[in-house]
Amino acid sequence: MKKTFLTYLFFILAMSLFVTLRVYAGKEYDRKLDTASASDTAQHEDTAADDAATPVSAPSEKQEDMDEPVLPKDEKEYLWHGSIEPKVPYEGPLPRIICWGDSLTVSLDEKSAFPDIIRELSGCEVINYGVESENTAMIAMREGGLRVNVKATVIPADTNLIPIFLRTENNGHVSFLDHGDGGVNPCVINGIEGKLQKLNGSYYFERSGKGERLAVEEGTQFKTHGMVDARMGDVLVIFAGTNDLPDKNSVRNIISLEKSMLEAAKCDRYIIVGLTYAGGIPEIDAVNEAMEKEFGDHFVDIRKYMLSYGLADAGVEKTSADEADIRKGEIPGSLRSDYVHGNKLYHKLLGQQVYRRMQFLGYLPADEGSLENEEDI
């Protein structure tokens, strides 16, 4: 009985202690809650006062879609659209336009590539020296910006095919005719015109007609048709570098070769087209910025144009795949034929923009209207 009474008494004391602690905890919680509430009220009043002192912009009619690609402001938008205000007045006659490049310049039907579009718009003679798969050095070899020399040999009096050995001025490999002619033939060695052939990996030369036997000295320059045919007043369009896959450092080599091409042609009227293949050139923004810094208004950043205006100017409705491409910095798929090459819409847009830049620089007469008034692409 005594044991039962003690157990009961212990239970009563434990319950009393529990209730006391609960009451104390509840009061402490209420105190903290009141303190926090007062602090929040004061902070809200301070914020309201600050807001009252700060001008409030009117809300936009439509909030920006977070999934929509955000493109940088184009400070040179006037170069892409509207009437042309020439930087330099045009003085005739119409020039020849010589286009040097790789597969992005090649025309398969002589009417759909961008040099064909320039010919149609300008009425000029346009010569296309595009050869697929070539890097900038290979293009420069054909144009003369990278000198190619002939090792000492003898050209006979007759038209027999003879072997010749070619090396670049820094003793590098020569790539003529690997993927196409592109202005190599008819070529000239020491004043003798002929045709270069590549058989089983070796070069051979056949003079065009009989003449005197001639000894060719070591280091004599090999001249392509594109070099010999160059004229004062030509406008050069150079679209090179995609097959180099440059980064922000190696782009200096491309710039150096392109400048050498201009020097070889003694040309101060030119257009340099920027690179577009973001998938293979991760630092393409820095690459194009370096080229633009070097060439200024002679540089056409066609990738920037295609990302911002290409689909609208082509009259193409943007697809979800196009939006994804733009978000990645890629030319929209609706303007491409594959991962790197443009389709007919792309080439027409490129041809128009190169044509506009030539008008802006005074190489061609400026239209009274603008290309926006042309028929749909």
Q: What features would you describe in this structure?
A:
The chain has 377 residues and is α/β, with parallel strands linked by helices. The chain has two domains: 88-144 and 229-365, Rossmann fold (3-Layer(aba) Sandwich); 147-223. It is 38% helix and 15% strand. It has a seven-stranded antiparallel β-sheet with strand order 5-9-8-7-11-3-6. Strands 2-1-12-13-14 form a five-stranded parallel β-sheet. It has a two-stranded antiparallel ribbon with strand order 4-10. Helix 3 (114-122) packs across helix 10, helix 4 (136-143) runs parallel beside helix 6 (251-264) and helix 8 packs across helix 10 (344-360). The longest helix has 52 residues, at 2-53. The radius of gyration is 35 Å and the shape is globular. The termini are far apart.
**How many beta-strand elements?**
14
Helix-residue proportion: 25-40%
Q: Would you tell me which CATH topology of the largest domain applies?
A: Rossmann fold
Q: CATH superfamily assignment of the largest domain? A: SGNH hydrolase
Q: How would a crystallographer describe the biggest sheet?
A: 7 strands, antiparallel
CATH class of the largest domain equals Alpha Beta
Shape: globular
Percent strand: 15-25%
Low-confidence stretches: 17-66, 369-377
Strand line-up in the sheet with most strands: 5-9-8-7-11-3-6
